[in-house]
Amino acid sequence: MKRRHVFHIVGVVVASVGAAMLLPAATAAIYREWDDVGWFVLAALLTTAAGLVAWRAWDRPGELRPREGFAAVGLSWFAISAFGMVPYLFTGAITNVTDAFFETAAGFTTTGASVVPDPAVLGHGVLMWRGMTQWMGGMGIIVLSIAILPLLGVGGVQLARAEAPGPAPDRLTPRFRETAKRLWYVYLGLTLAQVALLWLGGAGDMTLFEAVAHAFTTMSTGGFSTDAGSLGAFNAYSQWIAVLFMVLAGSSFALHFRALRRPAEYLRNAEFKLYAAIMLAASVVMIVGLWGGPVSTTIRDSVFTTVSVVTTTGYATADFGSWVPALQLLVLGLMFVGGMSGSTGGSVKPYRLGVLFQASRADLRRVIHPRGMFLTRFGSDTVSDAIVESVQAFFLFYMFIFMTGTLVFGIIADATGTGVSALTSVSAVASSLGNFGPGLDSVGPTSNYLAVPAAGKWVLSFLMIVGRLEIFPVLLLFTRELWRR
């Protein structure tokens, strides 16, 4: 392990976050929030300076080995969560370190969990920073840096393998730097398209600022809103536009790029078909379960909730925490689905679920025919044994961390006398690990995480980062093998 190479990369990433703080400063200036302008500029200077010091203090690495890539990614996400909370503390939007770190971790990991009771009372600069943390975290600070790290003599492929939100990075070109650029063009293009549709097509429902803020947090599947009522505070048009772009954000961006030339690529992709089928089936079940009210509202709330949960966005138009227990269990189950591989969504991913199902079928057939040769297929592709084992290991670790996190969170709640229910503990951990945000019961969509004990917030913050980085980069930080020279 060449540790100096790792810290060099962390410095570059932290410096880029510091530079990004100037945009919220400009936003605050536009709205004449002069105190916040000064605090954001100071936060930008301190963060950028800290990053540049780390960048200059350690050597410029060459091509990274896997262990350096994983270490750089894991440490970078903890570092940007630590420095990203500085604007909240400086402006007084959040007054303690625990809550500020929780909000920042929820931002960069695109988890819709929040400790802010009413975002509408925050300044425009702070709201812009909340949205930006999710937008930057959506495609990944590391992937964003891939475009500039080669200029510094840093190879990007190992970083992408560690950070890519899916089983493996999908390369559109032989050079990963060019792949990253193309994915970001799609990401930026879809963001601008949503801004235009929300601002120009909503009959004045959203201001330009609100349209930008919600486009940032929709395309990142983040879920932070400018209103305490989330998307429920806006009209049906804005909600349906959000549904469309949540579906797009939860799909593979590499698939979008290919589909620009050949739209039939969507129908040929096995994971996309499974992803769409899960959302369609769950929407139908919710519509049936909620039937009895206004038809248009029932359909809209059912589809919106399904898409929001599956894509791990975290928006809400209805209080699904007050629905009948069967529908609440459905919502909880959908938290373990997630967006497609190569999307900004979190959780397990349809690809892994599909492989697990097909591998289980093959195992059952082997029991009946011990001498038979059975391949695991997903769609028309044969899945190698190595990939099956990798998917099984991921799912095992995911469920182990989920169960352990639920136990630890429950113990903390009991020790602090907060009276948190089992449903709250289970849903809060599942939602944090899957990067969804709202849970059930006391952390439902009409509530927030402010009342969660401080130790519980640190546990959930850790789980958000673990889930966003697909578990392994964070777990490897705690192994001696990674740091051995």
Describe the structure.
By secondary structure, the protein is mainly alpha-helical. It has 23 helices and two strands. It has a two-stranded antiparallel ribbon with strand order 1-2. α10 packs across α13. The longest helix has 32 residues, at 385-416.
Based on helices, strands and strand pairing, what is the structural class? Answer: mainly alpha
- Chain-averaged pLDDT: 87
Shape designation: globular
The low-pLDDT segments are 145-166
Task: Give the biggest beta sheet.
Answer: 2 strands, antiparallel
Strands across the major sheet, in which order?
1-2
**How many helical elements?**
23
Percent range for β-strand residues: under 5%
Distance between the termini: 5 Å
Q: What is the β-strand count?
A: 2
Helix content: 55-70%
- The ordered H/E elements are HHHHHHHHHHHHHHHHHHEEHHHHH
Rg from C-alpha positions?
22 Å
Summarize the structure.
The chain is mainly alpha-helical and 485 residues long. The chain has helices at 3-20, 22-30, 34-57, 66-84, 86-91, 97-108, 124-139, 141-146, 157-163, 176-200, 208-219, 236-249, 253-259, 265-268, 270-290, 295-310, 325-334, 350-368, 385-416, 422-433, 454-468, 472-475, 480-483, and strands spanning 376-378, 381-383. A two-stranded antiparallel ribbon has the order 1-2.
Task: Summarize this structure as a short list of keywords or feature phrases.
two-stranded antiparallel sheet; globular; single chain; mainly alpha
